[in-house]
Amino acid sequence: MTAPRRPRLNTVRIGPSGRDTVVLVHGIATDNLTSYYFTMAPDLAAAGHDVVMYDQRGHGRSERPSTGYHLEDFTDDLATLVDDLDATGPVHLVGNSFGGTVAFDYALRHPDRVASLMVVESEPPTAAWATKMSTLLAGSANRLRDEQVLPWIEGTYGWHAARLVSRSRPLLQGTTIAADIAASRIPAEERWRELDLPVLAVYGGTSDLAGMAPWLESLLPDCRTRQVPDHGHSVLVGDPRTVGKLMLDWIGAGHRHQAKAVRV
């Protein structure tokens, strides 16, 4: 059987070539590569890093197939992108929210290709994560059928937020993303104890995910966590200066490890 064609991904690359490569992976539904492009990506490039951003399948200017939104589909997209980069060595991965989960999954499957991992408001894929995400996506798709939702979002959070939510409607309502996430392949928890590479996890201090920091530090062999006070899940765009400094310090400090291969 012929493998399905991978969707075309919109990719932006800035900064000097031949240096450490940093791949930035954005979140789901209302997100795209611009959340990095207009925040910390230019500073990473100015610091001498080769910076790669891309719109994940179904997002931004990338193609939006009607099906094929299992976590492993997103991870395979990242794998293809990294393979095509012709990077001089393992890459540093940075993932926000769902993008961090994709980066976690990629690192577990391809530890030899990852120098370090930094995630923002994210968690490794678990059965509980898949159920939560699927429920959130399906619920968002249903709520967007109410004509009063977008005006309420604009009145409460502003025009820009309403615009982002509106642009997510074709993905949420016109694809199988909610069902596919629920049916994703989930690694066994014990495999994460074998992920022997440096991980930095950043959380907003008021976020629901901040409480998982002790669990994550106990689960991963080499994990540090940081919290940004007075911010929730949107800390990446809410306080880009703090998150950007953490990112520059993390990558600039030379956190790098050739991880031992783990079973696939």
Automatic annotation (TrEMBL):
Keyword Secreted: no
Keywords per UniProt: Hydrolase
Domain AB hydrolase-1 span(s) in chain numbering: 21-140
Xref: InterPro entries: AB_hydrolase_1, AB_hydrolase_fold, AB_hydrolase_sf, Peptidase_S33
GO MF entry, a single one: hydrolase activity
Superkingdom: Bacteria
Family per record: Belongs to the peptidase S33 family.
Name of protein: Alpha/beta hydrolase
Native source organism of the sequence: Streptomyces blastmyceticus
